[in-house]
Write a structure and sequence with these properties.
- Helix content is about 40%, strand content about 25%.
- It is α+β, with helices and mostly antiparallel strands.
- The strands form two sheets. Strands 4-5-6-7-8 form a five-stranded mixed sheet. It has a three-stranded antiparallel sheet with strand order 1-2-3.
């Protein structure tokens, strides 16, 4: 009489092979998650750079390319320095977020909004008051957030517009 089915040894061998495959695949999966976060941050930085150039072009057209000025974009007053958005660290988190969203098409909320409901947007904007910097972080990284957290896009305009991206902790 012929029996159909698997022996216990055959099942154990299959489970061992599946475990080995899982161990090999897991690090690659986690690298894909990191790689996707890095790619998204690079995209945010590139989008920010494009937005800055559009603001600058508009400032040139309106004759606001020198000194400290203001320009209305999408109904929001944007402070300028030499035709590029200027960061005023004394502005509130919500005001900074409104200014950024006026020249940057991004699904972002202010830090104060993200603290109330982290699921509301993919990104949040933050600021460094003493340094006049704007930061963009993933909302999922809210608990790890600091100006030294290495998964961010930073903008400043002290001597000229500068977009810096850090991705080592993404």
């Amino acid at each position: 009489m012929k029996k159909n089915g698997f022996t216990l040894i055959e099942l154990v061998i299959v489970l061992v092979i599946l475990a080995i495959l899982a161990l090999l695949a897991a690090p690659r999966f986690f690298n894909y998650q990191r790689d996707s976060k890095v790619a998204i941050m690079e995209s945010v930085a590139a989008t920010m750079q494009s937005g800055l150039e559009m603001v600058h072009a508009r400032a040139l057209v309106e004759g606001l390319e020198n000194g400290e000025q203001e320009i209305a974009i999408n109904g929001v007053m944007i402070p300028l320095r030499n035709g590029y958005p200027r960061v005023d660290g004394s502005d509130s988190f919500d005001e900074i977020n409104q200014q950024v969203l006026a020249w940057l098409n991004l699904d972002a909320v202010s830090l104060t909004t993200a603290q109330k409901d982290p699921s509301v947007a993919e990104f949040f904007t933050d600021k460094s008051t003493p340094n006049n910097h704007i930061y963009i972080f993933f909302t999922s990284d809210l608990d790890a957030k600091s100006v030294n957290f290495q998964c961010q896009v930073r903008y400043q305009n002290v001597t000229g517009p500068e977009v810096r991206i850090q991705t080592s902790a993404c």
